[in-house]
Amino acid sequence: MREKHAETRRVTFDCRCVNARGETVMTGTARVIAPKVRITMERPDAAQVSIQSHDNLENFVGRCRQLPPVAVAVVHPCDESSLGAALEATREGLIEAILVGPLARIRTLAEQQGFDLTGIRLEDVPHSHAAAFRAVELVRLGQAAALMKGSLHTDELMAEVVSRETGLRTERRITHAFLMDVPTYHKPLIVTDAAINISPDLDTKRDICQNAIDLAHVLGIARPKVAIICAVETINSRMACTTDAASLCKMADRGQISGAILDGPLALDNAISKEAARMKKIDSPVAGDPDILVVPDLAAGNILAKQLTFMSHADGAGIVLGARVPIILTSRADNKRTKLASCAVACLMASVPMVDGLTKGGG
């Protein structure tokens, strides 16, 4: 007991939570109002406490630290969030940042924020559009192995990436994936596509699947399980996402999608929960254990990712796939851990031998 106030009957206790080894894992205080009369009752069972440390993303950052830093062209880093993230990743040894933008503006921002630009390569261009063009050019010249979005709109950057004359296109469509660390889920979870393809057709969904599968392989998941998410788990000709899901599974059977186990359509509950799948009599190797969730469209993916982030305290590292190099997408709302994880995932992708921008062995 730390303190007691007799007149208000308020009591403050110091609290300590220990694990099975007797190590302190959490401390705090509890304030209670004591009863006026003595109460006797049976001792309740101890409450279960779960502490989420977000080790899944940290593990990928740790793997990246064992590799040489990757040259990353940072496009128009003209706000505190993007410039700070690039410099932090450089200090951590994950990347070698090449800052592409208006030099005077970047230097002024760095001075205001107390950032040290010593040893950082700077590419002076007049505005954000020129920054996107020059960053893509650095990749084509072999001077950068990844891109990182700064304080320009995603569409402005992607317009240069997908340019048929000077861009970074491959035979695959450009897609987006969130690598998420969800406290209530037992392993890393890839959610795709939540940022690039608004209403993907079947061929685009095929590339969304394959790009995410290739990412999973790079992360060390040899045969990822892919759940094709819809509102229902049965095929309905009036719901295109259900017929697309069935087609994607057949494409996997025929080798048009490779390196993974696919199932769909699956509703989110029976994709994530084995018990929910059992109650609906769904016998699936994917149900309750997916590595990848493929959503029907951008709206569904963006809502799901933000719901997991802001309501389930998940971390999500965003990356664009399908171009000749990985592209790091971070948000001003991302924390330091998430920003470093986004850089780490891109660096792991960049470290894998590529054939025209596609990982070797990809379908």
From TrEMBL:
Q: Kindly give the InterPro entries that the UniProt entry links to this protein.
A: P_Ac_Bu_trans, Phos_Acetyltrans/Butyryltrans, PTA_PTB
Family per record: Belongs to the phosphate acetyltransferase and butyryltransferase family.
Q: What class of enzyme is it?
A: transferase
Could you list this entry's UniProt keywords, alphabetically sorted: Acyltransferase, Transferase
Could you tell me which species this protein originates from? Candidatus Accumulibacter phosphatis
The enzyme's E.C. designation: 2.3.1.8
- Which top-level group of life is the source organism from? Bacteria
Provide a Gene Ontology MF annotation, just one. Answer: phosphate acetyltransferase activity
Please report the name of this protein according to its UniProt entry.
Phosphate acetyltransferase
Keyword Cell membrane recorded: no
Q: Name one Pfam family in it.
A: PTA_PTB
